[in-house]
Fold:
Amino acid sequence: MQAILVMYLILSLLMVVISVPLIRRMVKPNYVYGFRIRQTLADLDTWYAVNAYGGRMLFGLGIAMALCTLVLYPLGFSVDGYASACAVVMLIGLLIALGSTWRYMQRYVESKKS
Structure:
């Protein structure tokens, strides 16, 4: 079970690490890294604004995931139960972050039109 704890802590740390350049607007438009859709790739301001927002969401998810990983560990779950609980927290968090970033992008693009 310690291996699962370490794996999820590493994933959490990875989320935090990859979010920082996005938050700091250091990632230029590309087809590999960032929130890469037609609207963000078409406009530089949109790219940086949406990716900074998405980076903040990913940063928060990384912190929340690390906390959940550490809080759930001593609660006496079976190995499968612990791994599943951590996976569910991560997947729900990713869906919330993705959906929130998508809504932010839509509002941002609409605000630029008016």
The two ends are 53 Å apart (CA to CA). The chain has four helices and no strands. The chain has one domain: 2-113. The mean pLDDT is 95.
